[in-house]
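Re-run requested by the PI after the first attempt was lost when the workstation crashed. Everything re-entered from the original request form. Ligand of interest: magnesium ion.
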Amino acid sequence: MANSRFEYVKSFEQPDVLLPNTWIVVRIDGRGFHKLSDHYAFKKPNDRRALDLMNAAAVEVMKDLPDLCIAYGVSDEFSFVFHPSCQLFERRNGKLVTTIVSTFTAHYIYKWSEYFPERPLLPPYLPSFDGRAVIYPNNRILRDYMSWRQVDCHINNLYNTTFWTMVLQGGMSNTDAEQELKGTVSADKNEILFKRFGINYNNELEIYKKGTVLYRQYKLEEAKPTKSPADEESPVEAKQSRSQQDKIRKLRRKAQVVIDHVDIIKDEFWEKRPWILS
Ligand code: ATP
Ligand code: ATP
Ligand code: MG
Ligand code: MG
Ligand code: MG
Ligand code: MG
Ligand code: MG
């Protein structure tokens, strides 16, 4: 760029580099999806196609950005996790968030017609997403963050499943159902579903109860959890030298992104896939 007398305006830009060596979580959330989901007639409480579309867009984001090591999605939101060693955009907050948000939105809109062929997107009801970055200083707190989102998924889904069953199968009005559910705990909702409607909440689909976790599959998972020389390709033991970082990036790019609906609160998920946090 040529020098000019206008260039001083550049100095008004504020630095927004995120703290080094911390996990970066970028969480995006659909704007006004309550209204949007009504407009495009999402099924209540869970429209499977809408969730599959969210997941498909998120898989593309994972493929575009190999620095991401895991992502978790529920409803109209997705959390994308960058590894502490990530140097993408020199860890600039604005760059990271806007890149995730726009890449996700682009894929979401591009794939829309595949999932909702009978309901073309039409302004002013166009999907858009907001986003923010939060840093977490260690693995324990990152896992607590992930657990927080999954607990939220469970609580909301139990409520929504009970509410919509009372309305759609029980013929109750929205206000009556809401009134009756006020102050109830999980056990009460389970009982309403079972006693009144013969529904065992445990038998609901895992994608609704647990949300969606995306991660990269390495050979390690099929092998034993113990390390062996055959796992040379796994990034788990890699030291963070420049060339090895490049190697990890290449591996991440090649690795298959898996879509799973499992518990990420207990240790088991993480112990079986040690490369995710390493
Ligand atoms: P905001 O712009 O503040 O995020 P919002 O309307 O998007 O407002 P959220 O709290 O993000 O509010 O909630 C998203 C809403 O979108 C849900 O409450 C639900 O009504 C709807 N929704 C999202 N995904 C689905 C889905 N797969 N099936 C049915 N409804 C959905
Ligand atoms: P970065 O990801 O760092 O922004 P970039 O390749 O997008 O990298 P920019 O500095 O943003 O680089 O420059 C955008 C480039 O895109 C221009 O240099 C030009 O080559 C191309 N470009 C953008 N708009 C046009 C256009 N209307 N006609 C032709 N070329 C364009
Ligand atoms: Mg430019
Ligand atoms: Mg929001
Ligand atoms: Mg929203
Ligand atoms: Mg939301
Ligand atoms: Mg550019």
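Saved to the shared folder this time. The chain has a mean pLDDT of 92.
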